[in-house]
Amino acid sequence: AIIRRQDYRPPDWLVPEIDLDFALDPARTQIRAVLSVARNGAHDRYLKLDGDGLVPLEVKVDGRPLESGEWTLDGGALIIPLTGDAHQIETLVELAPENNSKLMGLYASGGLLCTQCEAEGFRRITFFPDRPDVLSRYSVRMEADPARFPVLLANGDPIEQGSSADGRHWARWTDPFPKPCYLFALVAGDLACNADSFVTMSGREVKLGIWVKEADLPRTGHAMEALKNSMAWDERVYGREYDLDVFNIVAVADFNFGAMENKGLNIFNSRYILADPETATDIDYDGVEGVVAHEYFHNWSGNRVTCRDWFQLSLKEGFTVFRDQNFSADMGSHAVKRIEDVRVLRAAQFQEDAGPLAHPVRPESYIEISNFYTATIYNKGAELIRMMALMLGPERFRAGSDLYFKRHDGQAATCEDFVRAMEEGGGIDLGQFRRWYEQAGTPHVRATLRHDEATQTVELLLEQSMPPTPGQPDKQPMAIPLRTALFDRIGSAHKGEELLMLTQPQQSFTFGGFAEAPVLSINRGFSAPVIVATDRSQGDLAFLSAHDDDPFARYEAMQQLMVNVLVGRIAGQNVDEAAVVAAIRDTVVDPHLDPAFIAEAIRLPSEAYLGDQMAKVDPDAIHIARDALQRRIGQELEPLWRDIHARTKANSFSLSSAAKGARKLRNTALICLVASGVPDGAAVAFSQFDEADNMTERQAALATLANGASDEREAALDIFYNRYRNDALTLDKWFQTQAFALHPDTVDLVEELGRHPDFTLSNPNRVRSLYGAFGGNQWAFHHRSGKGYRLVANCIIALDKLNPQTAARLVPPLGRWCRFDDERAALMRGELQRILAEPGLSKDVTEQVGKSLE
Ligand code: ARG
Ligand code: ZN
């Protein structure tokens, strides 16, 4: 069934209070729920409590047991006719958490019992109106075997605990803040705690706990630092204070997504909590910091103010991603963080926008809401908030966010509520800007600069267009904020940046005082999530790559310089590769630049990004061209790469920005050196692998070796496997590195790895490490035999029977068939059709595959 935004109706019944009693056991858990229900407005509709796979063992109304004819089940939901306006409903159900392979609702992971309710998992735990606009006060009692489950956690504050006569123990937690059921959580298990505390701005002390398996305790320090920094940052930047006496985080090994912001009890995929230098890369450390912050920030943007319905998902996710991005930028480098975020946006969201699964930031319809936790909702949603913040400026943006939190605290709000708070609090008209929420697709902007020597003026002509997306053939012009500067060639400076608002299909802007034609720097800082085409020459781009004072624009000029050469070469044009080599050399030796920035700027665009720049993607030609340019860069600057690689070797490990930057540059230098084909390349990579005292350098060396054939490659993979085979998160890297390798046999290796004894479909991280990474490896996945497509389709079919949510996430790479030649497109469609023909296919996979075939 298709759910539509336009069909929203307020709930028929509210549930101001709920009392839950869990008799926990992996094989047989009983859940008694007592709901106070209240009729919402004048109507005569029955009470409908959602349920998914639940059997009511008892149903009582106001204490009276109902006969089986007094209630009905309708598609899993419990329907009870009620006469009065307020009643007490009691139900009893029984579950087997250990058999819950979907990892939604109450499930078992590594000996723990835990929950995941967003978006619609609570209905797998008890009968309840499972929609985010029903807010309730929760009281939760848990009872379990104290030997296996000594720790019992739930939302809010612990208020009572004790032992029962039969040797079991129990605890009661209450949460004073009314919340939607998707924020419900409990955890039971044998957990150790990294305990700390934080004093809020009003002087309240909050007890912080990060709960993990005892052996993992030494790996929780970074997460705890990130949590305390997040709490302080949200007070300082948004005026938001934490509101309960305790804040707990639990790490679990089996988790469908990154983490979950359950009120006062965040539950995390362990990969976003655990980090130490031996097993975590700098990227992993940053992931921990960013996700801890993200979930913490949800306490206000998501929990205190929640979503009215799931079409408003970006209200909490887009805003919270924006908040965590800015937090991470403040903790490290603004320039590098922006470059990383834009890279992710282009790789994931621009591709989504250009394909069959394109949807607006506020979708109009869905079949399975789990399929809408997308880069569009999250990352493009964050870009929308960023544009509003840019147009308003910091003070007025803060006034808007203050108004939003004040006005909607305790409510289930909409994206429109947010925009209106920005308009009223910030004093701006966002009329046309609202189209960013409505129209799917990435706007294209063409910028042409015309210089008039006689009047010493330049005219900047901007034209916008937006390709059609499914269900939206015609697009209206967007309001696009473009930070722009015009550089004098002599002196290499500009007269000040301007924020140009492009609101019409075509618009021109005139600037005076230019005796000579300036160089255009546009969409600085990536101020709008658009694709810009300019008429800038390679010389102009080289100029900007050396002189632009906006770090993102400088990076972008360098990337565009490389893209032009590579795409030109693939098209058989005569291209000037020497200009790329020269720009890279000048960047590398610039003493004023941050090494982390240098590493970003000189890295060749990914094969996938190059594919996005072509009318039809030719994976083989792209690989060959990119590989050749990488080799030339390696060869021509070989002494430089050797020098950098030697010079950036640290004596001892540190997580300082300088040390992280040095590692990033060192790893980039290694890639260049090995790509040059020098005879000792593999040996240099192997010694980096062997000598490293940290995973950042070890994993990068392994990845570099994995791209080519050498004895060192096999040796390093063996050593890595034997060293980390008992550490799941690190073994994931072993699978992932091989699946992502630019090696001609990757497709066959992935097939073998799928049969490896350590491969399992029951752990989502492991599945993503192998098949998720492989789906992102353009050259290997699009092997012209179609083997890659078949492997991923086989995995989707098998995984769908266990975990449809995670299976559905593997579909998008197959859905991009339009972008490839006819032979590949036919093979991809064939696999999609084969999946669709599977009997008993889930709603999740059916929606993604069905849309992909349209
Ligand atoms: N709200 C969580 C977060 O962004 C993600 C939950 C995703 N769950 C799901 N079933 N789609 O932090
Ligand atoms: Zn989130």
Q: How far from one another are the termini?
A: 18 Å
**Largest beta-sheet characterization:** 8 strands, mixed
The DSSP helix count reads: 27
Portion in helices: 40-55%
Which ligands are bound?
arginine, zinc ion
Which band does the percent of strand residues land in? 15-25%
- Determine the mean pLDDT: 98
> Measured on Cα atoms, how large is the radius of gyration?
28 Å
What is the strand tally? 31
Structural class of the secondary elements?
A: alpha+beta
Q: Looking across the biggest beta sheet, what order are the strands in?
A: 6-5-9-3-2-12-15-14
Shape: globular
Report the oligomer: single chain
Uncertain runs: none
How would you portray this structure in words?
This protein is an alpha+beta fold and 854 residues long. It has 27 helices and 31 strands. The strands form 8 sheets. Strands 6-5-9-3-2-12-15-14 form an 8-stranded mixed sheet, with no helix packed on it. It has a 5-stranded mixed sheet with strand order 17-18-19-21-20, covered by helices on one side. A hairpin with a 5-residue loop joins strand 17 and strand 18. Helix 17 (681-691) packs antiparallel against helix 18 (695-706). The radius of gyration is 28 Å and the shape is globular. The two termini are 18 Å apart. The relative contact order is 0.06. The protein binds arginine and zinc ion (ZN). Arginine binds at residues 118-119, 257, 259-261, 294-295, 317, 370, 373. Zinc ion (ZN) is lined by residues 294, 298, 317, 320. It comes from Sphingobium tyrosinilyticum. Keywords: Aminopeptidase, Hydrolase, Metal-binding, Metalloprotease, Protease, Zinc. This is Aminopeptidase N. Residues 100-183 form the Aminopeptidase N-like N-terminal domain. Residues 540-854 form the Peptidase M1 alanyl aminopeptidase C-terminal domain.
